[in-house]
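Assess this one:

_____
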Amino acid sequence: MRINMHYSWLFLLMIFIVRAWCFLLEGTSSSYAQFSKWNAAVNASLEFEFKTNQRSGLLLYTDDGGTYDFFEIKLVEGAVRLRYNLGGGAQIVTVGHDCGDGQWHKVQVLRNHENTTLSVDSDSGFSTSRGKEFQFGKLSSNSDVYIGGMPSWYNSKLTLLALPSVIFEPRFKGLIRNLIYADDNNVISRRQEITSRFSRKTLKILVAFIS
């Protein structure tokens, strides 16, 4: 019985550690994290959680390699704003308030052809794109997913960005966890892992006690 109890507690501890794994972005001029491409296609979802005390900052960006399509998620005066383009013109959805309160907040983007829904905690809003073609770029030329900021090399290659202004957005300072979406090789959404290309000086991996 004691052995079984021991393994039960060990199992629960391992679950807690996995759930508590998150990373900290310091918000400096070279601070960002880089993840594999999101196959946004025409029906897809992406979600993550963040915690910060700042009211503005870039949370996430990805695009089609510099043509038309992009997804930008950022904090704007405590609200979460999704700006995106699927080729028919930019759309904006703003949800939430006081999200810079130092508490965890969950963000989800859900694609369904021309309709895109942004959810923040229990609130949501949606927008309908114009046009007839709603495919998000091509995986072969799409960018990776960037969290918290953009790599500095984009400063001299703005033509590679579908939304060049993203390079000037204030960087995010805070914690991120549970980035979940389907990658190139997997149609089932799963928790993403940071690629080998990120700012090691400003990105700290840590186990944090989640409140």
The chain has a mean pLDDT of 84.
